[in-house]
Design goal:
By secondary structure, this protein is α/β, with parallel strands linked by helices. 57% of the residues lie in helices and 13% in strands.
Length: 420
């Protein structure tokens, strides 16, 4: 069996396809169930963010599992396998684990080192674990990945400065306008991304309005920065006053249509508006960028903005990669030891069966011995068996995960006719 990851991300697919393959909260349980019920899949974790949709599985058969997961993604996105396949990436075993370590460390994010992905990886694993579709293999991989992500951010400067998508969205708006001071800023969404945006705006001297589907969350978040809460039903009115709109909700449909922004702009006396939409699927009609006075930026623009800061942190990238490779070596050693454990257990079990059979065959003569002599004989036999088994099992454990380990394991199976 193999650990396999199949997915699309911001590097391999256009934003339009990422929107279609995104698995929002309301559809997540259905997607997890669909993948976990595939014939060639034993364990499942689904990770869907604004940058990626990835399915991690423990595959019984690699090709069968790939087809199962691909077809499930096609059904979710309503695309043909031919349309999706050109944008899919597939990694298995060591490469799949390395990929997850990179994701958790923020090396595979649009914003290098961003910390939000760490929580998203954890939430995806915990969701699958709660749904009872993970087991020893994926639990171990994801626990290790979270530890790697923590090491990367603790031991290097990979997360310094702008370290989240929400922070980057605000920073991009500042770069475009020079300053947000005195601006009327409307934040759509009070989830994790909305909270990140509001936190970044806390000292920006702006007039802040938070609009959210759940009124209580909008109120609570606005109160943190002495802002004002608004209902989504009042969005058209709020757009008239806004200089800057920042949005990243988990909505499945667009919140702001072309007509909404067009109507708002007609009532603004030629005041321009900057809209930063980093939601996937998008919250704002992408054609709204053609409205005079509206500057519309999305995830593609954010990626270009984030690329500018990557060169300054190449040293950190190298250090994080070194951590990943060291942790990957540890993972391989541990997982390989777990893989040979059943073989070693069966080897020892057969030795115990042979000992018991021989003692049983000699039961008559042993009965003539004193209890003390019989116990002494059994201890001697056990010590001899232990010493004989010690070297083969130690060498097998030490070579696990290498070509030599495979040869030793195959020789042991062949010599003792072992079938785990």
């Amino acid at each position: 069996m193999s650990v396999v990851v199949i997915g699309v991300n911001h590097r391999t697919a256009p934003l339009e396809l990422l929107e279609r393959t995104a698995i929002v909260e309301a559809r997540l349980d259905k997607a997890i169930t669909a993948v976990s019920q595939c014939a060639n899949v034993s364990e499942t974790v689904v990770l869907s963010t604004c940058n990626r949709t990835e399915v991690y599985v423990l595959a019984e058969r690699f090709h069968g599992a790939f087809q199962d997961v691909r077809d499930t993604l096609c059904e979710i996105a309503s695309v043909s396998p031919e349309e999706l396949s050109d944008h899919l990436y597939v990694h298995y075993d060591e490469e799949a684990v390395r990929h997850l370590f990179r994701v958790s460390s923020g090396l595979d994010s649009a914003v290098l080192g961003e910390h939000e992905i760490q929580g998203q990886v954890k939430a995806a694993w915990e969701r699958a674990h709660a749904d009872e579709v993970t087991g020893t293999a994926l639990n171990g991989v994801f626990q290790h990945a979270l530890a790697v992500g923590k090491r990367a951010r603790t031991e290097t400067a990979i997360a310094r400065n702008v370290a989240s998508l929400s922070q980057a969205a605000v920073a991009m708006a500042v770069e475009r306008l020079g300053s947000l001071a005195g601006k009327h800023v409307l934040v759509l969404g009070a989830g994790d991304m909305g909270e990140g945006m509001v936190a970044r705006l806390a000292d920006a001297d702006v007039e802040l309005v938070v609009a959210n589907r759940t009124w209580e969350r909008a109120v609570n978040l606005a109160d943190v920065v002495n802002g004002r809460a608004a209902k989504l039903a009042d969005l058209r009115v709020e757009l008239i006053a806004a200089d800057v709109v920042l949005t990243s909700t988990g909505a499945t449909e667009m919140l702001v249509e072309f007509a909404d922004l067009s109507d708002a702009m007609r009532q603004r006396a030629d005041r321009p508006m900057l809209v930063v939409d980093i939601a996937v699927p998008r919250d704002i009609d992408p054609t709204a960028g053609t409205i005079p006075g509206v500057t519309l930026l999305d995830m593609d623009d954010l990626r270009l903005f984030a690329q500018a800061g990557i060169a300054e942190r190449e040293k950190e990238v190298a250090e994080v990669n070194a951590i990943i490779e060291a942790e990957l070596d540890q993972y391989i050693v541990r997982s390989s030891a777990r893989e040979v454990a059943p073989l070693i257990a069966e080897f020892r079990r057969q030795a115990d069966l042979l000992r018991d059979a021989e003692l049983a065959a000699s039961a008559g003569r042993l009965a003539e011995m004193s209890d003390r002599d019989r116990e002494l004989l059994e201890r001697v036999v056990n010590r001899v068996i232990g010493k004989l088994l010690h070297q083969p099992t130690t060498r097998l454990k030490g070579a696990a995960g290498t070509a030599r380990g495979e040869r030793l394991a195959e020789a042991l199976r062949d010599l003792f006719d072992i079938h785990e």
